């Protein structure tokens, strides 16, 4: 019973923490750290919520969640009699866990299919350009720049973007897209997109997804400005914002014109770095969340 109570308390804390974290002011100063915290909150919330129900369900076995489920699957008789509440908790817990796993797998499969179809399409309609080696060019007047992530990643720009941007601005945009590919931001977004599918009614989940989408753009901006002028990346963002950039295809990561002014301000007038002790505190919090929840699944308190 103690395990179920602790997991329920942890799930509540993660839900409240996620709600408060959507308004945190420091995240733009350390987007990579904020992404790690978001991932930790999401993983811990999912495991703690389902774990609390399953821990209560297998309480008659006197074991942890995983050993209790193993005993149930093997048909062992519990030490105490089952009642309707334990059966209901088992059904709810297994259903929740199945839904979370199913939406994650579905989102992943759909993204992989979309990227495979898009690679086939690019093979037909895109071309190489000696002026931008290693980049696929679309003959389209609209402004577009995006990457197709994966093992065979590609960076794509449109003819309209080539005409819109100066040489330095184009280099900044390509560095931004290369950052998305290198840091596998598609994998960062995947669980949040899956959670949104599972809970489309939740404002906290919607806000979390929007926050992470913005944070990965800021993280890509930060990596890009290591290789190019921040002002050139800022002017490229403004050009995309005013030109009405083409929507990014499903499953890809693109040069979004979201929150342009906030991103431009970060590039032109970077704020103070997050204090090192605060960084360590959030890292410690993330490690604690990710390690403690699986521990509570295995051992009985």
TrEMBL record:
The entry's keywords: Hydrolase, Membrane, Metalloprotease, Protease, Transmembrane, Transmembrane helix, Zinc
Keyword Hydrolase: yes
Gene Ontology MF term list: metalloendopeptidase activity
GO biological process, one term: proteolysis
InterPro entries tied to this protein: Beta-lactam_resp_regulator, Peptidase_M48
Pfam families reported for this sequence: Peptidase_M48
Cofactor note: Binds 1 zinc ion per subunit.
Residues passing through the membrane, by range: 30-47, 85-112, 280-299
UniProt keyword Transmembrane present: yes
Similarity-based family: Belongs to the peptidase M48 family.
Name by which UniProt lists this protein: M48 family metalloprotease
Protein source organism: Nonomuraea phyllanthi
Taxonomic lineage of the native organism: Bacteria, Bacillati, Actinomycetota, Actinomycetes, Streptosporangiales
């Amino acid at each position: 019973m103690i395990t179920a109570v602790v997991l329920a308390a942890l799930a509540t804390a993660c839900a409240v923490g996620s709600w408060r974290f959507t308004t945190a002011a420091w995240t733009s100063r350390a987007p990579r750290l904020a992404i790690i915290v978001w991932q930790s909150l999401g993983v811990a919330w999912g495991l703690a919520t389902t774990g609390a129900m399953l821990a209560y369900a297998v309480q008659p076995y006197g074991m942890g969640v995983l050993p209790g489920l193993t005993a149930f699957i093997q048909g062992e008789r519990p030490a105490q009699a089952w009642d309707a509440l334990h059966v209901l908790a088992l059904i709810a817990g297994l259903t929740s866990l199945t839904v979370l796993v199913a939406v994650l797998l579905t989102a992943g499969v759909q993204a992989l299919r979309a990227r495979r179809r898009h690679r086939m399409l690019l093979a037909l309609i895109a071309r190489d350009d000696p002026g931008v080696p290693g980049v696929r060019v679309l003959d389209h007047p609209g402004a577009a720049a995006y990457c197709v992530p994966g093992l065979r990643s590609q960076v794509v720009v449109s003819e309209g973007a080539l005409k819109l941007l100066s040489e330095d601005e184009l280099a900044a945009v390509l560095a931004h897209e290369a950052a998305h590919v290198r840091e596998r931001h598609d994998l960062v977004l995947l669980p949040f997109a899956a959670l949104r599918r599972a809970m489309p009614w939740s404002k906290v989940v919607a806000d979390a997804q929007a926050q992470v989408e913005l944070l990965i753009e800021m993280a890509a901006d930060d990596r890009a400005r290591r290789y190019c002028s921040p002002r050139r990346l800022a002017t490229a963002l403004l050009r995309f914002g005013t030109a009405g950039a083409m929507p990014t295809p499903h499953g890809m990561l693109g040069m979004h014109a979201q929150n342009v002014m906030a991103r431009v301000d970060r590039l032109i007038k970077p704020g103070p770095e997050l204090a090192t002790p605060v960084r360590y505190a959030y890292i410690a919090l993330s490690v604690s969340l990710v390690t403690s929840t699986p521990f509570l699944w295995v051992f009985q308190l």
